[in-house]
Amino acid sequence: MDVPIPGTAHVPPLAGFTIGVTAARSSDELTTLLQHRGAAVLRAPALRIVPLGGDTELLAATRALLAAPPDLAVATTGIGFRGWTEAAEGWGLGDELAACLGKAALLARGPEAEAAIRAAGLREQWSARSESSVELLERLLDQGVDGRRIAVQLHGAPQRDFVDSLRAAGADIVEVPVYRWLPPVDSAPLDRLLNAAFTGALDAVTFTSAPAALGLLDRAARRGRTAELLHALRRDVLPVCAGPVTAAPLEDLDVPTVRPERTRLGAMVQTLTAELPLRARRLAVAGHRLELRGQAALVDGRLRHVPPTGMALLRALARRPGWVVPRAELLRALPGSGGDEHAVETAMARLRAALGTPQLVATVVKRGYRLATDPSAPGR
Prior knowledge:
- By secondary structure, the protein is of the alpha/beta class.
- The chain is built from 15 helices and 18 strands.
- The longest helix has 14 residues.
């Protein structure tokens, strides 16, 4: 049975866990936060951001607004709004754009967009607390947009439903494409992350934007392995999202996610740090305290790094603690064994050495192995 294991405060909270990072822009900061808490990090940007500071399309949209100022302007992302104002500065249009937007009613899609507006010396009229485009759209439609000119700062891709709904309500829309999200140039890191999810070598994966979640799903689809990815995310890999907008593509596919109350990188890491260790399996074995923690084990509160083959055996044994698990069943759980039963013996020897306490796994002659949860019954 599972038992609590006290006395592991000296072990970093995420030690033994492997966590995927799909972010492109905040990858370094997120990786540092996770590694500081002991995690092994698998970095795999699911998208790349292409800025359009020198793009003729962005310049044309900016000049169109300066020539015919908007009644309202919508900032959908902090990085996008900042990129727009910085691009305008580079063109020598910074003061004109600030004056133009200063006369419009500014709406923000959440705190980050709100902060970018204020950093530009402007003030928002309203901000969507949920950071949802749906809430933003409802606000605009409720107040009426017929005959009003609206600048919509896009966030990486055309927002057809949002823009089309406003146009259908009579608004004159100017789309402002500040940057685009595209697939990564090198898909190898993303493939490694997917393979880790498929083989049980990944414990959690983080998403800081909805396009990152869509990027991972798209890559799995291109490999014909969507069903495998969804199975892993629903069962073995904990999906951690920065907020409800980020989580939406996964939750639409019935993938449960965890997310913080506030959409902040630090808050997301705190949520992950609290949630992931709860998934560890804790057992009392041969007078010792054993914890199966992702890709490692704790024995009496001491972290033991176990090779992948050893962890595969340990998980198989822990599914029925105290009961004999036949060699044939262990062989099926062993990755890359090729059907050779000798591979079980080799992997078991390495597992015992890694645990540092060989008696945790008992050999039952001619039958198999078991976790020694009850030393008084060696043949259970």
